[in-house]
Design goal:
Protein name (chain A): N,N-dimethylformamidase alpha subunit domain-containing protein
Domain N,N-dimethylformamidase alpha subunit (chain A): 5-95
Largest sheet of chain A: 3 strands, antiparallel
Largest sheet of chain B: 16 strands, antiparallel
Strand content of chain A: 15-25%
Helix content of chain B: 10-25%
Largest interface: A-B, 34 and 35 residues
Radius of gyration of chain A: 14 Å
Structural class of chain A: alpha+beta
Shape of chain A: globular
Organism (chain A): Kaistia defluvii
Strand content of chain B: 25-35%
InterPro entries (chain A): DMF_alpha_dom
Order of helices and strands of chain A: HHEEEH
Structural class of chain B: alpha+beta
Pfam families (chain A): DMF_alpha
Oligomer: heterodimer
Helix content of chain A: 25-40%
Number of strands of chain A: 3
Number of helices of chain A: 3
Distance between the termini of chain A: 36 Å
Radius of gyration of chain B: 28 Å
Number of helices of chain B: 13
Chain lengths: 106, 753
């Protein structure tokens, strides 16, 4: 059976991702991310670069290419890992109903 | 979003020759242009920065521009047909629709869009066979069978029409019937419209529109299309294909196109008496299995009669056919190397990019007598790999890419433009809208990711470079070191082979020279076997076999055959290249693993982060002493602009039993890879539970060196990310030193053995 996120088990990995969003992860965090990064609706969250190496915002690519990509006005990220953390927090809230009110890293 | 895009009419040009640039402006009526040399296309502030020295030429200045569009979609056109609907006629054939629900699609037509005269046979309304006729005064009438065709099933179709009476028949017969499924359709009736029969060109898989484009394309295969006078049936079709039709049927043929003839060409041969040959436009796929393919033969050259189908796509593109916006005569004294036309139409901002760099390469003079003394170093620009990745859009079309990357997919203005313009056509990694693989890629269209300043969703974190722009890290290092070199492209090597390499002592590759034709492979191997010294500066090289078209310039073919990292898979029985009849797929599957060429071969890929190499015992071997001069370090390349290290993206290693030389030294091996750096699938038969680099000891890059018996040598970095580390610490680092040590020794004429 495909793994389903269990907040009691997976909450453990939030801190690991918060400290290092990109890079080698523990098997448990990798399983969590592989699960979170699948959207059965066919939509895809993307990172839209406004100014190379300076500013990014999030966008939502629809399942049907004939529809436009919805680009957010904000938040504007000055660090790609900040955007990774924001997407992680949104997905966690969507999948568990819980909010994560902590910043990226300490 | 991009407000100015373009492409050159060639990727390689020699001094004294002319190169034309085709540019489309989304706004305004003029643009400025100038020639620049491309030294570094990476604007990452952590690196040395952009370097585009201006080369003054006669094109400096303002040029007129306008919007130019692409009319994508393949079709057949035959211009020598009479007005077919002037008499009773029948159209017989087989179709294999791949998107029957996409809307109105034309299978066959002789239609004047200006007057709405003629006839169209097609599918519509979820895929029901239809006949549309027009009276030339704007009046049209359409009739259809009751049931839609199924996707990817063969149907024999017969459409007859008798203009004087208006009587018609439509017959849509599945070759394989299924229980409960109703996809057989027959409809017989009378059309009241007085049909006009214009003497215009005949089309398959599309028809002309009033704006001059060709539209209403059919997605799928067509096999055995025949036009006849009189009312004919499936039995007549079968008889004609079998060569057993009675004479009255044989002589009734207006045109009988046999797509199994001249498969390597774009000709659609009419085997009827009138020779009303057609031409296939925008490169539909050939050497496709026909309705009668049995599996008894896998190679179309051995049984072309089983490969009588052409697969048309509404998103096929061969030639954008844009008008030339500016041309440049290459000065006789222009140094060989990487260049670009820098064109801009205004200031860029957060919402729009109003400048473009259209890259090309200046090669040495074609005439050997005019070359004079050349430097000993030759850079081989992997342009056919750039072309294979042309408008690579998996981040748009393939869900799962974020998982594969291990990070968010980044979209710049170029990617947003690519999203909005599928008519640009995809790469060899993409699929057509109908799900079939893109097996042809042409350079006669904008290649958006073959550009300086493009930061790829696929490139490692940091600079995020992949392919061409990653190779500018190498150009930059060569420039910084003051290395005098010539440059040729893959296409030059394909056309001229070993002779073009013969005068050079050293060949330096790009970061990802993945695609090679047989002529390219043979030329390079002949050079190595005769004492050449190869500096393989990347990873996953000599992987896929490609074919060049024999008459149409600038287009290559790949068949994603039975193995390898494949984003799509060729259909069983469709592994042989249509352009030349060669068995396609991995060079490894043809008995020429990358190891045979470079001493190393593809082992793993992962796109999250890059890591470092750890010195191996062979580094201290006397044969390798020159490589490690002033490099005592245990760890090599734990820095870099592509993923943060020198070992990343795609990795090669030394492997036994793949035909590589047994005397390769393993100088260093990469370490510290994450679970996302995974073993490639040609390396296992049974899927192992430990695919990732955190658990699989085979997942690593080998920095490697070996001598050849003819006095030459092979040096392999075995990692796409290597060149991203060259500029670290103002080019003073162990990756740069090792690379320089190798180049310095390779420049020395003294044979290695």
């Amino acid at each position: 059976m495909v793994y389903k996120i269990d907040p009691e088990i997976d909450r453990h990995y939030i801190e690991e991702f918060r400290q290092k969003p990109i890079g080698a992860h523990s098997p448990g965090l990798q399983r969590l991310l592989n699960t979170m990064r699948h959207d059965p609706s066919g939509k895809q969250v993307v990172l839209v670069c406004k100014r190379p190496f300076e500013e990014w915002v999030l966008g939502l690519m629809p399942a049907d290419r004939r529809e436009p990509i919805a680009i957010e006005d904000g938040p504007v990220f000055t660090d790609i890992e900040e955007a990774e953390w924001e997407v992680f927090r949104r997905r966690w809230r969507l999948l568990t109903g819980e909010s994560i009110n902590r910043p990226l890293r300490d | 979003m991009l407000k100015i895009v373009g492409y050159p009419d060639r990727y390689s040009v020699a001094p004294g020759e002319e190169i034309a640039f085709k540019i489309s402006l989304e706004e305004g009526e003029t643009f400025e242009a100038r020639l620049v040399r491309v030294v570094n296309g990476d604007c990452n502030p952590a690196g040395p920065g952009l370097k585009f020295p201006h080369i003054p030429t006669e094109i400096d200045g303002i040029h007129a521009g306008k919007p130019q569009r692409i009319d994508a979609g393949s079709y057949m056109v035959a211009t020598e047909l009479p007005a077919v609907a002037a008499q009773t006629f029948s159209f017989l054939g087989f179709v294999w629709p791949t998107m029957p629900g996409r809307g109105e699609q034309v299978i066959a037509a002789q239609w004047d869009p200006a007057t709405q005269a003629g006839f169209q046979i097609g599918i519509g309304d979820e895929g029901r066979l239809s006949l549309t006729v027009g009276d030339g005064s704007g009046g049209t009438e359409t009739v259809r069978v009751d049931h839609p065709m199924l996707e990817r099933q063969w149907y024999q179709i017969a459409v007859t029409f008798d203009p004087p009476s208006g009587e018609f028949t439509l017959d849509q017969r599945p070759l394989i019937p299924y229980a409960v499924v109703r996809d057989h359709g027959q409809y017989r009736g009378r059309i009241r419209l007085e049909v006009q029969a214009p003497p215009v060109a005949f089309y398959l898989a599309g028809r002309p529109d009033s704006d001059g484009t060709v539209g209403h394309h059919f997605d799928g295969k067509i096999d055995g299309p025949i036009l006849l006078s009189g009312v004919r049936t499936h039995a007549d079709h079968d008889g004609l294909l079998a060569g057993s039709a009675p004479q009255d049927v044989v002589t009734a043929r207006i045109a009988h196109w046999d797509f199994s003839r001249e498969i390597e060409s774009v000709n659609a041969i009419d085997i009827g008496p009138s020779g009303r040959h057609g031409r296939l436009m925008q490169m539909p796929a050939r050497a496709m299995k026909g309705h009668n393919w049995t599996g008894e033969e896998q190679a179309w050259p051995n049984k072309p009669e089983h490969y009588g189908a052409v697969h048309f796509h509404h998103d096929d593109i061969y030639d954008a056919q844009w008008e030339t916006s500016v041309s440049l005569s290459i000065p006789d004294d222009l140094k060989s190397g990487a260049y670009a036309l820098h064109a801009w139409s205004g200031d860029s901002d957060e919402t729009a990019t109003r400048e473009t760099y259209i890259p090309f390469f200046v090669r040495p003079p074609r005439d050997k007598a005019k070359r004079g003394k050349r430097p000993p170093v030759l850079v081989l620009a992997p342009t056919m790999s750039y072309l294979s990745y042309c408008n690579h859009a998996e981040h748009i079309t393939a869900r799962g890419a974020e998982r594969q990357m291990g990070r968010l997919l980044t979209f710049g203005h170029t990617d947003l433009y690519m999203y909005d313009h599928p008519e640009l056509g995809g790469s060899h990694y993409d699929t057509h809208a109908d799900g079939s693989g893109v097996c042809y890629s042409s350079r006669l269209r904008p290649n958006l990711n073959f550009s300086p300043r493009y930061h790829s969703w696929l490139g490692g974190p940091g600079s995020a470079l992949y392919q061409y722009n990653a190779d500018t890290h190498l150009f930059d290092w060569l420039d910084h070191k003051g290395v005098d070199y010539d440059l040729i492209t893959d296409e030059d090597l394909h056309e001229e082979g070993y002779d073009l390499l013969a005068d050079y002592r050293i060949v330096i590759t790009g970061t990802h020279p993945e695609y090679h034709s047989t002529a390219m492979w043979d030329g390079m191997k002949a050079w190595i076997d005769r004492g050449g010294r190869l500096m393989y500066m990347g990873g996953n090289g000599w992987y896929w076999r490609i074919g060049f078209h024999k008459t149409e310039p600038g287009v290559i073919e790949v068949r994603r055959a039975e193995d390898g990292i494949r984003t799509w898979a060729a259909e069983p029985g469709e592994y042989y290249q249509s352009f030349n009849g060669e068995f396609g797929g991995l060079w490894r599957r043809i008995g020429r693993a990358p190891n045979v060429m470079a001493g190393v071969g593809f082992i793993a890929q992962g796109f999250d982060i890059s890591t470092f190499y750890r010195r191996a015992p062979d580094a201290d071997h006397p044969r390798a002493a020159f490589i490690f001069k002033d490099v005592p370090d245990e760890i090599i390349g734990d820095f870099g602009l592509v993923g943060g290290g020198a070992a990343g993206i795609e990795l090669d290693c030394i492997s036994a039993n793949l035909g590589g030389p047994p005397n390769m030294l393993r100088l260093a091996s990469s370490d510290g890879h994450s679970a996302m750096m995974m073993l490639v699938n040609e390396e296992f038969g049974v899927v192992p539970p430990n695919l990732g680099g955190d658990q699989n000891e085979r997942v690593h890059a080998d920095l490697a060196f070996g001598e050849t018996p003819s006095g030459g040598a092979l040096f392999a970095t075995s990692s796409i990310a290597w060149c991203g580390s060259l500029s670290h610490n103002d080019y003073d680092n162990n990756v740069s030193r090792i690379t320089w040590n190798v180049l310095e020794r390779f420049l020395d004429e003294t044979p290695f053995v």
